[in-house]
Write a structure and sequence with these properties.
Layout: H1 2-33, H2 44-50, H3 55-63, H4 66-69, E1 76-81, H5 83-87, H6 91-98, H7 103-111, E2 114-116, H8 121-130, E3 134-138, E4 144-150, E5 153-157, E6 163-173, E7 176-181
Parallel strand pairs: 1-7
Antiparallel strand pairs: 1-2, 3-4, 4-5, 5-6, 6-7
Length: about 190
Amino acid sequence: MKKWTSLVSLCALVLGFQCYSQESKNELALDIILPDFTEAHQSIIEYTASMAKHSTLLQVLKAANLDEVLAYTGEFTVFAPTNLAFEKLSHITIDKLLDPKNKKALTSILSYHIIAGKFSASSILRAMCRGNGKANFTTIQGEKITASMKGLDIILTDKDGNQATILTADSNQSNGVIHEIDTVFLPAKLF
């Protein structure tokens, strides 16, 4: 009987160490995987101004006076094109967009990238699950953006079929969330 008691005790001890080890690994993995959910103190526009990779976005937001909107306390979701996304546009297009005569068109284009309300990547994914793989969101422009999956990426598609991939998700700010995208949405009839 002593042999069994020693064997059972040894097994219990090994299992205990293994469970403790697993818990420590899980806690570490969660720290790495989950974003920092501490309250952000910057507004969307303040964060955009602090990021060099969004300098063009900041410039066009100011030209369209949308910087004032994104400084408000209301909650927004912004699909923020990077400088590289803007570089995909021709210089003529960017010059046209920044021309004060085209402020209405610029405002319209940028409004395709903003949704009223805060939608994290996980809430977008949940909406896609409820929608059989697709979810529609209405921009402040009043147009629909459809979210779907392509492999592991969330793809956004506008009404004209233009697509953008979310590169970096869930940059939480005091008045909403920013998802960095690789393409600028341009309506079919720009000017």
